[in-house]
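Q: What would this chain look like folded?
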Amino acid sequence: MANYNSWIRTNYFEIEDESKWAPFMEKLKKGSDDIEDFSEGRQHAFGGTGYIGFKITKDNNTDKAFQNALQDLVAEDDAVIIEEVGHEKLNYLAAGATVITKHSVKTIDLSEMVKDTARKLLDDIDWDTQLDY
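A: My prediction, written as structure tokens:
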């Protein structure tokens, strides 16, 4: 069985309270495979390879805890964009992004986007295909 390999990077974003950045990154580094802080002054960013997130929480919902922490950090008038690309040999390729603002979270999956685009171009809402094998 092959291993999934991924690369993750955020945009540069501003946070409301600079004193919260170091504790956030410390917690992130403890729960992640490989993480790097790309911050420059008041512009913060991070990225890495493998899993990025928090260690298991009481309710085992690490993604939700991670997203909530970013929502608490991000400035009211800014957004965190987390882009991820990955693959498991050539069985499948994955690409997507999560956009996190103070008040909402939206995840975008490239595979679903391209299938939706093909449906529109073909004028066939039932069209589907397999992108992994």
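The chain has a mean pLDDT of 90.
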